[in-house]
Amino acid sequence: MSCSVPDLCDDFLEELQVLDPLFNNYGGKEKFCGEIVTVRCFEDNTKVKAILATQGKGKVLVVDGSASMRCALLGDLLAGMGSDNGWQGVLINGCVRDVEVLRSIDLGILALNRHPARSKKRGDGEVGLPVRFASVSFRPGQMLYADANGTVIADRDLGTAFV
After folding, report:
1. End-to-end C-alpha distance for the chain, whole angstroms
2. Of 15, 20, 134, 151, most Cβ neighbours within 10 A?
């Protein structure tokens, strides 16, 4: 039997950080979990692209885009690449675009909003650092669990039949 984020909260609340309910689901996969990989970037998705081009089996990319509402950090091409490379999901503290197509891609995609403009391509950003947003601190190696009820972070794999 598969469990949900509320089930995790019932059983492990003292071990979880619960994200503020700020994010909308744009991906074709509503329920996902995986080991966190982090990137911090501002209006430049060069590092997002580089990470999603790598093998991501069992991983979730957490993107701290400083909540910018001036461009998208993920669109259909990068989402498709991430799905093809086995990524479970992407959580973006920022915007996405190509939302009609994103829903058809087998990838969990949570973002603050949508924006039609693409980001800059300067090569800026930092990978593998702790980031903080939505009242939660994210560190590489932690586990992220997300479904229609919300998103939580654990320091360890909770060993549940989540997906």
Report:
1. 10
2. 151
Cα-to-chain-centroid distance, residue 15: 20
Structural contact between residues 87 and 53, judged by C-beta atoms closer than 8 angstroms: no
Give pLDDT tens digits along the chain (163 positions). 589 999 999 999 999 999 999 999 999 999 999 999 999 999 999 999 999 999 999 999 999 999 999 999 999 999 999 999 999 999 999 999 999 999 999 999 999 999 999 999 999 999 999 999 999 999 999 999 999 999 999 999 998 777 6
pTM of the model: 0.96
DSSP state of 85: T
DSSP for 126-142, written as a single string: EES--EEETTEEE-TT-
What are the structure tokens assigned to 76, written together? 């259909």
Whether 92 and 51 have beta carbons less than 8 Å apart is answered as no
